[in-house]
Write a structure and sequence with these properties.
GO molecular function: DNA binding
CATH class: Mainly Beta
Pfam family, one: AraC_binding
CATH architecture: Sandwich
Number of strands: 9
Number of domains: 1
Strand content: 25-35%
CATH topology: Jelly Rolls
Largest sheet: 6 strands, antiparallel
CATH superfamily: Regulatory protein AraC
Number of helices: 4
Organism: Arachidicoccus ginsenosidivorans
Protein name: AraC-type arabinose-binding/dimerisation domain-containing protein
Oligomer: single chain
GO biological process, one term: regulation of DNA-templated transcription
Radius of gyration: 17 Å
Amino acid sequence: MHNKYFNGVKYLTINDNDLKWGLTTTTVGFQSIKPSQDYPTKEHPSPYYFYPDYGRILQEFQLIYVTKGKGSFKSAQSDATAIEEGSIIFLFPDEWHTYRPSAKEGWDAYWIGFKGLIAGNLLDKQFLQKRAPIQNIGHNEQMVNLFQQALDIASREQTSFQPLLSGITMHLLGLIHYTVKMMLLRTRKSSIKLIRRAC
């Protein structure tokens, strides 16, 4: 898949007014990691850079979408999990985690970081769950388009860009929730059909 955001990494400014909105975006990015390439790359500032063997703890939520390749993930509440193409990884504030692409295959991944009362409420109401940090939604072109819109907006940082990015973040979260629920519904319907055929 062609992607004009080859290794685009953006960390964003946040002011007091942005925080009042209830959801702010801290970082947006896309990276294509080649097989056997060092990971993570050096573009990340110290609060974000980490050594995969030791992991890290962030003070924000992050949503990572792996669109190509494979890797692995582990967190304080999740055992080691294989990451495949189409996987969504959720990172939570104050939650130890580590992840890395496969040395054999590498990966392409988008991400967006966010924080605020709205995100906290989604966690409190269990729409986001620390015990279920991985979802696989397959390839979703709408997700890719939303990430690319976010990268465009973040690259310019024009006046009041934060509320616009927060809208895209909510759209991403809503789309993931919808997609996962629809996949479960289709699976249940298929199971019911198989049971009926067997009877």
